[in-house]
Amino acid sequence: MMQPPTTTGSADPLALILAKLDLLGQQQEELNAKLEALQAKSAAPLSPATVTLRSPAPKPMRAGQVTESDGEIDVVPASVKPAQRPANPYGSRVVLTTYPKQFGIHPLPLNWGAAGPQQRGPIVASRHPDSLKIRNAIGAYGGSYCIYRALAVALGELDPMHRPDFGLTEPPVTIGPHPQWSDPKKIVSLDPYGHLVTTAFQSDIAAGADVRPTIAITRAHMRIAEIEASVKAGRLRADGKIVLDNGELNVTKAAVEPVWYLPGVAERFGIEETLLRRALFEDTGGMYPELITRPDLKVFLPPIGGLTVYIFGDPEGITDPTKRVTMRVHDECNGSDVFGSDICTCRPYLIFGIEEAVKEAQQGGVGVIVYFRKEGRALGEVTKYLVYNARKRQAGGDTAETYFLRTESVAGVKDMRFQALMPDVLHWLGLTRIDRLTSMSNMKYDAIVSSGIEVVERVPIPDELIPDDSKVEIEAKIAEGYFTTGGIPSKESLASTKGRMWEDLQH
Ligand SMILES: [Zn+2]
């Protein structure tokens, strides 16, 4: 919401804060200049890394005390006496990079959507001393797993100075480059060069930049009970190449971590970049101050789950206009996908999507499954279970009519998946046409088509694959606009389509 204009003549608080930050930055710059001058006099010149990691101030400090000068902070843990203090693997000085125009901070140039990797520049999100001053992205590598990395360092299991050895990790297949990679509007939520960083940014890495892949591609076999049953029943034939005799599938897969180009993400959703930055700052508990203080940094690696692409058949066929592509875009549902819960259609639809993808590959085309880590419509599993309880307990029972109402009353919204960023991965693959889309979601379809990819045919889940207890979900979704080749459920039908009550579970 916009703030009402001030009528008292007092200045905008944000402007005051920014002015103050600017002043702090200037003061810091002066102090740093003095520091560098002092260092220049010493016999052995110190590298920026040594400045960062220099010894604690000689004067004694009380536990819990924080002192601040020139953008660096000394911290003594409050909970342990200095004598028992564990070795701090980072050094006692914390270097903040939140000041605008901070001395010595020179982010590597980054031109999102430029014609090639060299023109675009590497994405440097590391706080390794070699990269701290050239860092050009907010957040950290590894998505949400950066938190486990932090724990590993804090527990002494991981050296914070560890630099990964990427030898032999290169992709076994070629993906791209595609023209979409240099269209700043087509891809805004992943780094299209994410799997190529060790070659594309070799010189930057050799110069010390800690640039890490945000995409990895590999090949594997996979076994799925339903697919094996399909092969046994003769619905799917073994061909020794895509489907092996024992029912195993041959697959190429890619794991993708999110990399958001904030101006592009804001534009995709039709909002202001400043509002997007503010919302990300507020709703991560103020976790990334640079979202507010460093408007010069345009890229953010959010601490959220990424996605996995499963490709059946030759990946290069994806961009061959003579080859057909069958695809399913699936959002994570751990309860059904992995544990077989029957309250929804997720696993049956996923398996159906895989089977259709495999059949396409067997006919000379390509089958693609994209699996997004957006559990429970991106509301999370805790919210999902709360909604299940409310659905089962409500007066009148669990009906299709009240399906979305219960989600809204708990979460405030029906759905937070916001499919607008989803097609980015399809553009990364170089897709321009999907011959068969095994999805009923109107939100996914609209997002794909409006991003410029043609969808020839939409394929709903066959009725016989819908578990009884999930009829509530599927009817409610069809009534909301999901694609169907059948009829739209009437109001009466929505009221009478009921899920199982808890008591029924005991029979
Ligand atoms: Zn589900």
Automatic annotation (TrEMBL):
<keyword id="KW-0342">GTP-binding</keyword>
<keyword id="KW-0378">Hydrolase</keyword>
<feature type="domain" description="GTP cyclohydrolase II">
    <location>
        <begin position="313"/>
        <end position="460"/>
    </location>
</feature>
<dbReference type="GO" id="GO:0003935">
    <property type="term" value="F:GTP cyclohydrolase II activity"/>
</dbReference>
<feature type="domain" description="GTP cyclohydrolase N-terminal">
    <location>
        <begin position="93"/>
        <end position="283"/>
    </location>
</feature>
<comment type="similarity">
    <text>Belongs to the GTP cyclohydrolase II family.</text>
</comment>
<feature type="region of interest" description="Disordered">
    <location>
        <begin position="49"/>
        <end position="70"/>
    </location>
</feature>
<keyword id="KW-0547">Nucleotide-binding</keyword>
<dbReference type="GO" id="GO:0009231">
    <property type="term" value="P:riboflavin biosynthetic process"/>
</dbReference>
<dbReference type="GO" id="GO:0005525">
    <property type="term" value="F:GTP binding"/>
</dbReference>
<dbReference type="InterPro" id="IPR000926">
    <property type="entry name" value="RibA"/>
</dbReference>
<dbReference type="Pfam" id="PF00925">
    <property type="entry name" value="GTP_cyclohydro2"/>
</dbReference>
<dbReference type="Pfam" id="PF12471">
    <property type="entry name" value="GTP_CH_N"/>
</dbReference>
<dbReference type="InterPro" id="IPR022163">
    <property type="entry name" value="GTP_CH_N"/>
</dbReference>
<dbReference type="InterPro" id="IPR032677">
    <property type="entry name" value="GTP_cyclohydro_II"/>
</dbReference>
<dbReference type="InterPro" id="IPR036144">
    <property type="entry name" value="RibA-like_sf"/>
</dbReference>
<protein>
    <submittedName>
        <fullName>Uracil-regulated protein 1</fullName>
    </submittedName>
</protein>
